[in-house]
Every structure is written in C-alpha cells, then in structure tokens.
C-alpha cells in the first residue's frame, strides 16, 4: 500500500510539474503578445504626435487665413462706402441737372413766346419800312 501512496504522490508531482510547464509556456506567450501590443501602442503614439503637430499647424494657418480675410473684408467695406458716396454724389448731380434742364425748358418756352412776338413786330416793322419806301419811290 505504501507503494500506491508513493505512486500517487509521484503522479501528483508529475501533474504539478506539467501544470507549471504549461503555465510558464502560457506566460511566455502572453509576454510576447504584450510586447507586440506595446510596440503597436508606441507606433500609434508616434502617429498621434504627428497628427497633433499637423493639426496644430493647420489650425494656425486657418487662424492666419481668417485674420487676413477679416482685414481684406474691412478694406472692402471702406471701398464700398466710397463707392456709395460716389453713387450718392452722382444721384445729386443728376437731380441738379434735371432741375437745371427743367429751368432752361421753362425759360425757353417763355423766351420762345417773346421771340415769336419780336419776330412779328420785326416783320411788321419791315413791312412798314418797305411800304414807306415803295410810297416814296
């Protein structure tokens, strides 16, 4: 019986050794996997740093572009204000020309009537003078 006890203790020890060997193999495999994961994470970290740098530069350029656009828009506002002033001046000038034209038109109608009367009087005087000359001859 003692012999069976030794055999069972030997089988238990052998099973324990086999179990320890499999645990060591599993730990080594896990270690390799974790090493690969660590390398992958480091690569991702480097890529993220590159993306972050590029994003920062892009944001900086975008801000400069926005400032430039605001500055140019301000200059265009001044230009449009000037153009509006010119348009207002042209409108005032056009109104002045219309008023002058209307004044000239009214004055020419009055002068036209006076001129017509003057022509009638002139024709009458010429007729009178011609009539006198004809009588004197």
From TrEMBL:
InterPro entries: UPF0478. The keyword Transmembrane applies. It comes from the Bacteria. The keyword Transmembrane helix applies. Keywords: Membrane, Transmembrane, Transmembrane helix. It holds the Pfam family DUF948. The chain crosses the membrane at residues 6-25. This is General stress protein.
């Amino acid at each position: 019986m003692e012999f069976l006890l030794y055999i069972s203790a030997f089988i238990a020890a052998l099973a324990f050794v086999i179990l320890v060997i499999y645990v060591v193999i599993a730990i080594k495999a896990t270690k390799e996997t974790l090493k690969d994961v660590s390398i992958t994470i480091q690569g991702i970290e480097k890529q993220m740093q590159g993306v972050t740098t590029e994003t920062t530069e892009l944001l900086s350029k975008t801000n400069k572009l926005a400032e430039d656009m605001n500055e140019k828009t301000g200059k265009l506002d001044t230009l449009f204000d000037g153009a509006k002033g010119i348009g207002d001046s042209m409108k005032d000038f056009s109104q002045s020309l219309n008023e002058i034209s209307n004044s000239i038109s009214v004055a020419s109608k009055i002068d036209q009537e006076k001129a017509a009367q003057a022509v009638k009087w002139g024709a009458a005087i010429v007729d009178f003078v011609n009539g006198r000359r004809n009588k004197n001859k």
